[in-house]
Specification:
Length: about 140
């Protein structure tokens, strides 16, 4: 009788463990993406064509927690470099803590192919642009 009891307990444990694992939720995080409000940029003084530079960005990402910098996107049109700075918010997070999340010098590495005068056009959340003129030697 004792071996039958051990087999029954073992079977219940295996079944319970399998049920527990199958009920585990997928925790794949989904994000909402949004443009960051850029207040200023830091650009090197001497920029040489075909040499990569780091452009540092500063601004306010959000007035609540659960947000963070995500990525940059760039598009070059003639002598305009259009930049979008994106942040992300966890879609499933509850209302975040009330603190300001800042963009503190996140760097975009970029290389201009030829010399000349360029205009950095950084798209803002309200569809306006923060603009900065630069000279490439």
């Amino acid at each position: 009788m004792k071996p039958l009891k051990h087999i029954l307990v073992f079977t219940i444990l295996i079944f319970s463990f399998g049920t527990f694992l199958s009920c585990e939720e997928s925790h794949e995080t989904e994000y909402t993406f949004f443009l960051v409000q850029i207040d200023s940029v830091l650009i090197p003084d001497n920029i040489v064509a075909k040499s990569p530079i780091d452009i540092s960005f500063y601004g306010t990402i959000s007035n609540s927690g659960y947000t963070q910098f995500s990525h940059f996107s760039t598009e070059k049109l003639d002598n305009n470099l259009i930049i979008e700075c994106w942040a992300k918010r966890d879609k499933n997070a509850s209302i975040g803590p009330a603190w300001v999340t800042l963009l503190k010098g996140e760097k975009l590495r970029y290389s201009f192919e030829s010399s000349g005068d360029y205009l950095l056009r950084i798209k803002q959340p309200d569809n306006s642009f923060f603009e900065e003129e630069i000279k490439i030697e």
